[in-house]
Amino acid sequence: MACDYPAAYEVNLPLTGHLASRGKHGPVTSVPGQATVFRADTPSLITHWDATCTVLGVKFDRDWLDREAERVLGAGTVRVALPDQLRLEHGPARDWRHLVAGLSSQMRDGALFSDQPIVREQLAGAVAAGFLLAGCPDSGRVPAPRPRAITRVVDAVRADPARAWTAAEMAAVAGTTVRRLQESFREWVGCTPTEHLVGVRLQHARADLEAHPESSVSEIAARWGFSSASRFAAAFRRRYGRPPSEAR
């Protein structure tokens, strides 16, 4: 199964059987006591889902988890630091597995603390903190907080992705040169500013394709800042493995 998790991290914990996938660093096979980590906005491939395999999935909003990473670890983004797989047999990772399993069993009985938002926020924070400490245990190797200049560009692009951004304009938002901005983006975000911009636009366009079938592909491409429908289609296929017309 070709899949991706727009603006979210996904952690799959097999309860029975095994789950095989292709991660950033090669093949990954997880069995009970292990978890496969899928990065936000990164196309992934599940190569085998055992017929006996049942999975408990934990999904984190990307922006929210990045903010929690800054609070818990002092890291602006965890995309680079997270492994493709977590071993959950010992230490903080085992404790996190028990926490998630306990919450999952309680949620089957209805909305957990549905009338107590403060408790829900604290539980969410505990799940995130436990995951971050288990997935990034070596705090000495976790990157320092993302520079504010990079954060300003990321926030500006997400606020207005359809704008005809140029590299110079993004550098001006950051208060630096184009070359330095590109170097910093690769270090802290894992891609160039332009690649990040295209990724944000594709997320919005994909959502529109699914939600507004009355709009043509060309209209949606123009709405989100693509200079032509053909370029949009090529970028969409590279990202999602299929043409925009099939995303409806």
What layout of secondary structure does this protein have?
Blueprint: E1 2-3, E2 8-16, E3 19-23, E4 26-30, E5 34-38, E6 44-49, E7 54-61, H1 62-72, E8 85-87, H2 91-107, H3 117-135, H4 148-159, H5 167-174, H6 178-188, H7 193-211, H8 217-223, H9 229-240
Antiparallel strand pairs: 1-6, 2-5, 2-7, 3-4, 3-6, 5-8
Helix pairs in contact: 1-3, 2-3, 4-5, 4-7, 7-9
Structure description:
The protein is of the alpha+beta class and 248 residues long. The longest helix has 19 residues, at 117-135. It has helices at residues 62-72, 91-107, 117-135, 148-159, 167-174, 178-188, 193-211, 217-223, 229-240; strands at residues 2-3, 8-16, 19-23, 26-30, 34-38, 44-49, 54-61, 85-87. α1 (62-72) crosses α3 and α4 (148-159) packs parallel to α7 (193-211).
Task: Quickly list its features.
248 residues
In short:
The chain is of the alpha+beta class. It is built from 9 helices and 8 strands.
* Strand line-up across the major sheet: 1-6-3-4
Mean of the pLDDT scores? 85
Following the backbone from N to C, one meets helices and strands in this order, namely: EEEEEEEHEHHHHHHHH
What is the CA-atom radius of gyration, in angstroms? 19 Å
Beta-strand content estimate? 15-25%
What is the strand tally? Answer: 8
Q: Could you give a short account of the major beta sheet?
A: 4 strands, antiparallel
- Oligomeric assembly: single chain
Count of alpha/pi helices: 9
Distance between the termini: 18 Å
Uncertain stretches of 5 or more adjacent residues: 139-143
Shape: globular
